[in-house]
Amino acid sequence: MKRPVKLGLWLLGFAVLAMLGLWLEHERAKARLAAFKAQLIAKGEKLAIADHVPKLPPALSNAAPDFIAAANRLTELKPEFQPQRMRLIAPGKARVTWQQPELPTDKEPDLWPFVTAHVEDNRDRLAEMATALERPEMVFDLDYPKGFSLLIPHLQKLRLAALQLSFACVVDLHGGQTNSAFTNVLAAVRVGQRLQEPLLISQLVRVAAGQIAQQATWEALQHPGWTDSQLRELQAAWQITDLRTGWLGALGMERAIGSSVFQQFRQSPGMLDENTSGMGGSGRSFWDELFHDPAAAATRTGKFGFGLIWAGWLSYSDEQWALTQQQLWHTSVRQAWTNQASAPAEQWLKRERGTMTEPPRLQRFLSSVLASAIDNYNRRMVAFETVRRLTFTAIALHRHRLQQGKFPESLSALVPGSLAEIPRDFMDGLPLRYKLQSDGKFLLWSVGEDFKDDGGDPTPVGVASGSSNLPDWLKGRDWVWPQAATEAEVAAYHAGLAAKRALSAPKPPP
After folding, report:
1. For residue range 462-487, what is the model confidence (pLDDT) as tens digits?
2. Domain limits at 465?
3. I want to staple 443 with a disulfide (CB 3.0 to 4.6 A). Which of 22, 436, 456, 490 is the partner?
């Protein structure tokens, strides 16, 4: 046999062996991922999108259709005319919006004419939403298998609805219409309470709506005209808000959608170029780009080549790393709820991460994108669960004052009359902190993000990364339920706004 032929056969043999080796490595990576998924399923984890899709309730129980029909007809109030509720004007002190004869900003001397007219224009729609929310469930018929391409336009309307209901609450309190104010604040609470949609973005909108409802609730509690039955109903609405189900459901759906994305990208490696951050192309065909910009075409070829390598070999370890991280989040959230405390769960999560060896960047290429927002999501859910507990405890304290003529010496006085047990601080698991002050008012607080009790100190401090979107009163040393600012404090704040208006006012011509 001639030498060139022998050399060709040797090269062909090496090529076949190389292809066989690559195929075997592909199969081994695929098998490792399948085995890991089987382990998760054996532990009771649900990895398919269909496992997390909520069932549509009977029409008579579902608030969604009538609620969104009314919410879609709401008109929006320009941001410069929106009244701030529970406006923090000093550490631990907030202005009671509805009590103000005039409602100034640094641009307008009085917002009341604008916001009152807006609420009256939307009065019928607000009433329709409140009526719809009397139904026990709110489930929207979404096409969940579309994954991250899912259309969710209703979420913007949900947040807008909560905002409009809070405006109506303060307008009604300002005008002495307490029954209407109660209807609106209760409806605002129910917006977040009813939404159990298993999507991270849906749960974050739910938290945003809940924070709006908390501000309206605080404003309402400054009014002395409530009956015990009204306060009891408002307290119950906050207490039955089930954050755990939506929280874990969203994490589960996020994991399931993530796995479907991995599968889509394996089948079409070019999708990495089109969808992954920082890898977008010019939109031209490859041949057109080769003619006009050879360097860009070469880069594009390299990206596509990486896509093929990733899809055939790296994607399996990439997805396994994503599932590993997501399982840590699931476990830590479950631990937090079991222990009624986020601190031990957060410490556990940190220890577990410290024992793990992070794979090379190319083996966590897509997992790092899919997992980038989870820590911030969990932090915001922890914060809102703490806010929820502070809120219904504050309502119980006001019920006690209504019944007994004063706030109690300790939270234990609320049990069993207003509360079944003393609420725990979701940050560290100990009872919420409470102190009756010499002036008859109270301090109620959580230890906050640092898990350290500073004795109810609301002094602002720096916040952890990703927490900048928390309300101002959750940026203190402790998270202290605000007290109403004094008339002098409000007057000083309003004087500062007047000074800013004077500086920005156009000067008259000479």
Report:
1. 655 455 678 999 999 999 999 999 99
2. 59-241+377-504
3. 456
